[in-house]
Design goal:
The protein is an alpha/beta fold. The protein has helices spanning 61-64, 67-72, 83-113, 126-133, 224-238, 251-264, 281-292, 294-297, 300-307, 324-330, 351-358, 377-382, 413-421, 437-451, 489-507, 513-531; strands at 2-7, 16-21, 24-30, 53-55, 78-82, 136-139, 144-148, 151-157, 165-173, 176-182, 205-209, 242-245, 276-279, 318-321, 338-341, 365-368, 387-390, 393-396, 400-403, 429-433, 455-456, 463-465, 470-473. Helix 5 packs across helix 6 (251-264). The longest helix has 31 residues, at 83-113.
Amino acid sequence: MKLIFIGADHQVTGSCHYLEVGDKHILVDYGMQQGVQTFENAPLPVHESQIDYVFLTHAHVDHSGLLPLLYAKGFRGQIFATDATCDLCSIMLRDCAHIQMQEAEWKMRKAKRSEENASVEPLYTLEDAEGAIKRLVPCHYGSEVEVCDGVKIRFTDIGHLLGSASIEVWLTEGDTTKKIVFSGDIGNKHQPLLRDPQMTAEADFVVMESTYGDRLHSLDKPDYVTEIAKVIQETFDRGGNVVIPSFAVGRTQELLYFIRKIKVEKLIKGHDHFPVYVDSPMAVEATEIFQDNRAECFDGEALELIKDNINPLSFGGLKLTITSEESKEINFIDTPKVIISASGMCEAGRIRHHLKHNLWRKECTILFVGYQANGTLGRAIIEGAKEVKLFGETISVNAQIRQVAGLSGHADKQGLIDWISAFEEKPKKVFIVHGEDGVTTQFAETLKIEYGQRAYAPYSGSVFDIAANRFTYEAMPVKLEKKTHIASGVYARLVSAGQRLVALIKKLDGRPNKELGKFADQINSLCDKFEN
């Protein structure tokens, strides 16, 4: 039994961990890196085509965004996730593919304008996303799932996002069974829509996140409705727009819930029936999925509204834009308005167009409502950038920049401590991941010194023997340097296909000689075709 740390180790995004039990190769999450990547991630220890299963904690792209790439490189196993996570991935992975393809097309056009001879291929295509989506296996919260001989899992609601879960994994080799729990992203308490994180009682080993392991949310429950209403009122009185970069899944639905209350309570004076644009096709689809799963995942006041047949995510003046033409028209409408658009960190998507049209206007407000990773455009704006680059153009930052403090889907330091302290017996090891470099180290020390936990913050590439309860290799941090990739674009796909073929050949040992001979003849025939 082996655990290898691959991604989101001393970094916040790009979550990925590798498990090996018997002859089975398993990934827990396979996420995309967002913002600046400080350290180099270790490569997967086996070729992508040899991965048998993926256990997915939730649908956010820093946990799921590389699943289409896994498929493109030959993965044909199963991806286990909760029902709602499967629903959300069906839209989020397609959206990621569209963004990859659009960015590749934009880079190609830019290269042509510069008279550069460059071929740019997307990281993966829509077909790859569709292939990954077809591998999804929906699972219910609380149900034990027999994945295969020696592997059993169970998903527990962790309250971070619709469908998000911590995952209990039982691994058995011979007479030895060990249980490892992956926290996923632990949710904040008392959120407007979702249930509080559910605790887990037992584990031999725990891999837990530490995004906010160095800070506490306000002890007083924030009055988000009043705070957001104040920003809207002040901005509209100046004649400006409120532009909100928002994650299409989760945060957008919370904002709709708050704005509905603002409208019902008539908190905005002098701007009756003000329009609210949700400019993200994915956010529109995600909101429908939230509606479909509300009975299972919603909590508190939102659930009470549903029982009274009131839609907590809808109100007068809500306008959902789907087409790019509808999106472009928004900024040519003079009426002060609220624009909610993705992506939440301003790294891609339609929000960048809205920033281009509104950042330079003193009467407008850019309202941030979510975590901004180091190195992202959103982080730069929050930290006081005077100008930014958008679509090759320098844009002055003259708008009011505001941030709603405490509006987070992540547990704070105390919430993380509460979660790990809920285990009835202290785990043999607690591995701290998914946090910025200093945070993971600091939080591990806090758990060790103040709470008696056997906590560690491993770097990518570290290898842990689960059965023996010891590290067989403790990796050192490797600072990421820019590299020249020899294999890129279509050629990279060819190289990957060759690696998949080699991996397949190794699996065929012991098959009937007639089958092996026929396959060998087919390969040689194909080689002859391209050699001549």
